[in-house]
Amino acid sequence: MRQFIVEKENVKNGLIELIGKDFRYLRQVLRVKKGDMLNVRLDDGSLQGTTVSFIDDTAKKITLQICESKENTITRGVQADQVGGFFSDRAFVLFQFIPKPQKFELIVRQATECGISHIVPVIGEFSDKNCLHMFEGAKKERFDRIIREARQQSGSPVATKITRPMKLEEAVDWWREFSRAGAVAERPDLAGGDVAAWFAVALWERTEGEVPLNQLVSEHKNASKICIAVGNEGGISPSEILLLKEKGFFSTIHFDVNILRCETAALYGIAAVQSAISQAIM
Q: What is d(CA 143, CA 162) in angstroms, rounded to the nearest whole number?
């Protein structure tokens, strides 16, 4: 585990009291003992070093004390604050056309680990007519658990959120508003050639009209908001691609690889775009 997620409201006078599932996870899974140190990520994004100061196995309560150091903790690998810069400067959004529930859960987990800020479930032409059931009641709470577990395991500093499900046109409107919030520039074709502060791509199995990813990224390497649209089983229909292009100003990209399942395509696409941006800004 890279970090432990704690709501800021649980921090009082430099102490964090954990009970219930949090107690069981720390005590039974991580097997913490008094004096252990671990990193805690607060919901405002800040990372805090803590020391286990008190364990009450009878009351099933653990108390953490915030300290200055984030080193020598029981976490493993690269600490979360060492990878935060890339994500602090940009927000990655995933438009995921809603697939079957099990696949969507995997996509949520992987997208969270990759630092996606918003996952927008899109009701597409090929989505199952009962696809909205997974966003109701206790099933919705399961996504919150998946996100938290993925952030704790990966060390992601990004508080990933899932929006409510939207039809494509509504999702495009959401993206237009989100991408322009705080933007300092618009698209080159709308703002006299200035470098865009955002860009959007749709993964498509067809090659017509595609834009090479490296070219797109080189023209938008300073973009602060990036959206990646991925189809579900059946992909994205031509009419949906047309709407994305005309109203959302998406570009289509095509990867000349094997045919990928939608859950694989989401991870592959996110990784490809982030890697291209990372290479461009080096």
A: 8
